[in-house]
Design brief:
The chain is of the alpha/beta class and about 725 residues long. It folds into three domains: about 90 residues; about 375 residues, Rossmann fold; about 200 residues, Immunoglobulin-like (Sandwich). Helices cover about 30% and strands about 15% of the residues. It contains 17 helices and 27 strands. The strands form seven sheets. Strands 2, 3, 4, 5, 6, 9, 10, 11, 12 and 14 form a ten-stranded mixed beta sheet that branches. Helix 1 crosses helix 2, helix 4 crosses helix 6 and helix 6 runs parallel beside helix 7. The protein starts with a helix and ends in an 11-residue tail after the last helix. The N terminus is likely disordered.
Length: about 725
Amino acid sequence: MDQIKIGWKKCCCFFIGFLAFIWFLVRVVPRPGRAAYPCQRIAFPLATTFITYISSLLASVFAYRKARYFFSRKRYSIAFICILSAGITLIWHLNTSSVKTYAWTPSDPPNSPMGTARGIFPGRVVWVHEPDATSWDGSTGYWWEDTHVSQTVVDDMLSKSIQWLTEENTDSLAWDALFRHFNQNHGKGDVGYNYETEERIAIKINCNNSFYHDRRRKEDQIEATPHLVYALLDHLVNTMGIKDSKITVYDAARVIPDIIFDKCQPDFPNVRYMDKNGGTGSRCQVMWVDSAITYSGPVIMDSLHMLPFRVLNAAYFINMSLLKVHPHAGVTLLGKNHLGSIPTPYNLHQPPGHEFIDPNLVGMNAYSPLVDFLGHENLSGKGLLFIVDGLYGTLAQNAPPEKWDLAPFNDDWSSSLFVAQDPVALESVGLDFLLAEWPELIKDDTDNYIHEAALANDPPSGTFYDPEGDGTRLESLGVHEHWNNAADKEYTRNLGTGDGVELISNDPADSVLMTIRVFLESAFSAGEMSLYLNSAGYIPIQSPYSEDPRIISSVPNDITDWVLLELRRVQDGSALASVSVLLRKDGYLVTDDGLSTVLKIDLPPGDYYPVVRHRNHIDIIANETVALNTSTTTIYNFTTGSDKVEGAELADLGGGIYGMFAGDTNKTEVVNSADYLVVKTYSGSEGYYDEDCNLTGVVNSGDYLIIKPNSGKNSHIP
């Protein structure tokens, strides 16, 4: 059976090679320039493998026939040479008859964060996917035309992304939060954008394929999406009220093409569109400042040490890169976008120089100039926001858009926008998406520069990263990790297992719905729990739990006490949500009015373990996950059996009803003599006391009687 499978695979390889050869002839012979197309770059090695296969086979057959001929003529020396040639070509044929693809496996395992997370919500990356943003059929016109990109949808995507990133409910509040967080972390205090000094903003876009303003025969190749550039300017100018004359959009190594300029300039006429050629009006040519960057490795060409004056003069920097594979660097995201901030980026692509960005040449634990770009105080070091334009992601730096197979794209355009305040986290997420879609195109060790950036304060290469040349070493530039898998796309902050990346693809304000029922052993009697604390007015309006010490206006009737509800993705992980909730006498956790049993938790849909904690009962965790969503309410009832909790230990309250064990007054997760001593200390006290095990409002001998039979009971929460 294995031999049949191998034979079948060889037949498939032969057939694929033949088709690739025909495709290459049909497409490239009429127009040789098409040889640079990504599809032909893939077809060419398959076609050459096919030709090599056929050639070696024919050569070995020819040599064998010649050997027989010369043997028959008794010309043995020549016959021997022919046999030797046939053997060599046959071996060559056998060794080259398989078409192989290679998928790189990163050196660091999934969910192994490194570095220090940045941002209002550290390590957060927002991913907004809207299929309606793109509608190109792949052949009619060009991908960037208004008929193929919805400005309305792109506007909405940008609004969602910054609001989800900051958890603010308007665009203006979200931008203000971004400016304030930046200024707080750069020694300016808790202030937003300074309208009096009219601070300048530089926006680096990726125009790698534009050498002329009209682009000339490169209309199909990927570039910064004009509609996203427009949306970003609209936010800054019309939402935030920043003067458009204080904004520079640039690619200093290429030109801002007409497809972007003509889209944006009529509505934002005073924005400076800066590129290497310049022009009239609001187009301007880059002015270079010498010795503006000091590379931390052996980059020696003088031209590489220049940076644009307008970028150096800006107070804030927005890095808007693309979602693309790159044949030299592996990927082209935020770090490589900065090759458009220097005058001769090809000197970091071609010898001498390409060895600094080509992972196949440098390997892991090697110096990378991309770290200098990401950390330089006048480049991404003053990054207000980092964006990856994934509306039309693709498989090469000079390729047209390519449809994606990865879910949820499913043979459609990527139609995505990624934003973050942590550049390293965003680099990590972008790499994971590209690696999952095109594993055969990503070079080994592509994430070397990401490791170096995450650990810039103590990098694996040992490099002293100091791009300003002032003797001050860079700190960690952010947090890096790879997701758990391409299906779930979860990082440690999603899983609650670490302080790495958090990838969110929905509004944090969208809440999952659930209903929880649980009984407290010491307060339970005749099918419900007592109301002694409530009747005496002892239950405080502020929750007693430090995890969520919120305050309500009043305690409704029928409330027995406060409890703390947690939700986890894994049992031994940290809580992704901790909410103080009122516990009604019938065992239901209810809203603040005491009426609704439907709780809204600010988490994305998914599978969670509910945890219930009480101030003097043994805390419990479900022994199975509960699938929660935003449209239907999921019920989890802890009262129906001890098998509902991890450890299968609940107090039997009679009649098939179960509850949480009482007596853990000192919250050590175990009931023992120490709890007895605490109760003894507070004996006679009246009010809201943790030592009041039976919730009567008085600490007395009745509480001793609760503790004794439960001695040794402990929590099974990992």
